Amino acid sequence: MSPSTTRGADGAPLPATRGGGRRARYAEATRALLQETLFDAASALLSEHPWSAVRMVDIARAAGVSRQTLYNEFGSRQSFAQAYIIHEAEKFLAAVRDAIHTHRDRPRAAVSAAVEVFLTAAASEPLIAAIVAGDESDGLLPLVTNQAGPVLSFATDNVTAYLATIWPGVASRSLRQVAEQLVRLAISHAASPTAAPAEVGATLAEVLGPHLDELVTGSEQ
Fold it and tell me: How far is it, in rounded angstroms, from Cα 179 to Cα 209?
């Protein structure tokens, strides 16, 4: 046995993976902090500049890291943009889940509150402003419209999974259909608002509510 072997209080050697586990957790925490810092830097830049004017070197400089570190983490500008959008979407979705939970016994109210919360938050979000101000060529708009596979899938999966926890009797396929339509409509209204968040929420509740009422009521019989 090597003299450097770490032993427990009983004298037995500790598993070799323990130190490795600590190192792995430290590496994960370090990477998460790096990504959070880079995303915060991007938000700060987007509050003052359009996405088309924000370079990777600008993000790296604002975050206090090298350009190479940024590329090592994300690979490309588009990969960074996609990861950034999903990261910001999780913040919105957390607020949406809270709103749905508050009204879980009233499906229509849950839809209305969720949409209102999302649109209210989106109105002050630099990322949404950058998307709305952009065009098909600047890299952000396609990620949440015609090329939005990963982003829409992430949001739809998230909402579907949460709806399944509060309305477990409803078929998963039906919940996913509701979640996908809700996500797509909410994103569309965030990108091109035509009314106040509360009004939009009430409208979508009126449109989706009867179907959702039927699904939830039917599952309870």
Answer: 12
Distance of CA 9 to the CA centre of its chain: 45
Q: How far apart are CA 37 and CA 32, in angstroms?
A: 9
CA 208 to chain centre: 23
Coil, strand or helix at 7: strand
Question: For residue 59, what are its two tokens?
Answer: 């993000």
The per-residue pLDDT of the chain, averaged, comes to: 82
Which has the closest alpha carbon to 220: 175, 167, 148? 167
Report the Cα 78 to chain-centroid distance in Å.
Answer: 17
pTM attached to this predicted model: 0.71
pLDDT band at 1 (very low <50, low <70, confident <90, very high): very low
Name the β-bridge partners of 154. Answer: none
